[in-house]
């Protein structure tokens, strides 16, 4: 699984919906609210064994930014 | 199931979203009535001012009182105990916070004993598995008010599922034990009565602790049985002559000490004790035996056995946590193991009488039938949850469900059964739903398998039918709803003389009976209606 697919899988699990794509963002994805955002951050930290700073968590508002942020860490 | 959660921090990652509605943080102004249950899950806030924090915690009791006063008392209300995840003491003797937490926790255990529907959840059972570092994630706390580390969410959900199962009374009934290298160290047939390892120094002391712990399990209503490849005379000799043996013959309700395969033996134990395979846990040090039982009897729980004797204590804790714990152990539970044992004696007695009739007379059975009241209601609800075999409709009811039905004018009775061998306790119940002035429907009829085989079910139902006729009822309707386990009751109403009206596709049968005469009951029962 490449990085994109891995992140999509985590998003599906966290948001409890298959309705996620590389276009998903906090704006267009109903389940991506602030609480699920927290869970997403925590799951990403676990999955990739990284630590995210609060500022980074705040900035990853859509799929593209999540990938960009992860690439900077890995 | 719709649940409303009172909380003062973000707990959604732990309790989840499905069917859950959350109060505002520390908001008790809304107490919705259109939910199925309530949960109270408050966390101890972070505050360096101990006095102030203690006062805030003290106010939780008042808040809880207000909520309980307006919550629907017929709904379950689960209250988490408070755990201080971040104990901060600026001076050595400042125990105000700890005292306030203790007060709250004592309060909720008292509430769960006094108010129906209220159950307390020991949150420390979850938190005590982790060190202080892993419990808290300060980043997430400050970002979204959740002191408990969201990375523990998966663990929490696993734990919470088990707690909910326990709250629904889904524990196992029977523990089946192997002997050699399981109850003691070594092999009896080779090492001899005094050569096996039990008592004294390690590893014997590990098996002593293990046997003592199992004995406590038996005292708390778990049935112990033995399934071992051994010579029965060797085992009897060890029980009689090894002074260190804690568990002896009298602690086991069934024995299969022979050279048959263990699956056959476990089936026989299930039959003898009259309990389902899915109520059993099998303990054996031999992986091959465990595998055989797993393959042939998948309903039986077969945990791995520890490699080393010093791992027996954590193993015991795992057994208790996973299979045998329950939030409120009733006196019925405690007496149960003794009753199964008395049944074994009764079965031995059976052989000495010329016929069953003479045996039944000799038992001096007393059937005490009483309407549901505050004392027997928990037991009645518990029976609807746990009884599978002699249960005509298998409808599961909580205490509050039963209370609601009583409030709606239903007649609910239960029966206490005793004989000269002992008191089996409350072991039968019937729920009668008035349909109109002269018709009543049997919604629920069940008897614990402990008392089956003595015609008690016939006597119970006939007594109830006679009572109903005296109360002016002229017709009784009843259903048999088939399940995987209640086949033995499929023809019960036919036997009682009910007329079969129809049979549904799923095998459910619908009956009615005209109440136009007195039902004769055998003289061997002393029946009292209270």
Description of the molecule:
The complex is a heterodimer of chains A (about 70) and B (about 525). Chain A has helices at about 5-15, 35-50, 55-60, 65-74. Helices cover about 60% and strands about 0% of the residues of chain A. Chain A is mainly alpha-helical and about 70 residues long. The model of chain A has no long low-confidence stretch (mean pLDDT about 90). Chain A has one domain (about 5-75): ACP-like (Non-ribosomal Peptide Synthetase Peptidyl Carrier Protein, Chain A, Orthogonal Bundle), CATH 1.10.1200.10. Chain B is about 40% helix and about 20% strand. Chain B has 19 helices and 18 strands. Chain B has helices at about 10-15, 50-70, 95-115, 125, 130-135, 140-145, 155-165, 190, 205-220, 230-240, 260-275, 285-295, 310-325, 330-350, 355-365, 375-385, 400-405, 455-470, 490-495, and strands at about 5, 20-25, 35-40, 75-80, 120, 175, 225-230, 255, 280-285, 365-370, 390, 410-420, 420-435, 440-445, 475-480, 500-505, 510-515, 525-530. In chain B, helix 9 (about 205-220) packs parallel to helix 13 (about 310-325) and helix 16 (about 375-385) crosses helix 17. The longest helix of chain B has 21 residues, at about 50-70. The mean pLDDT of chain B is about 85. The interface between A and B is medium-sized, with 11 and 15 residues.
